[in-house]
Amino acid sequence: MMSVPRVLFQIWDIVSTTLISIYVFLYDVYANHFSSGPNNNPSYHQPHGPTASSFGMGGNSDPKNLCGRTVRLTKGSVKVESLLGEGGFAYVYLCRRGDGGETKYALKVSNMSGVEQARKERDVGMRMESSNVCGVVDFGNIPDKDTGVDVGSCYLLFPYITLSLRAHLNSYTKSAPSPLLPIPNLPPSEVTQYFSGIIAGIQHMHSRGFAHMDLKVDNVMIRDGNAVLVDMGSASRTFTKPTVSRSDAARLADQAASNTTVIIRPPELFEGGLRQGDSFDVFKVDVWGLGCMLYALNFGWSPFEVEYDRQGRGLRYVDCSQLRVLGDGWDKWRGGGEVGRRWEVMEREGWRGVCRKCLRQEQKERCPVGGILEEGAVQNLI
Question: Where along the chain is ATP bound (predicted)?
Answer without folding.
Answer: 108
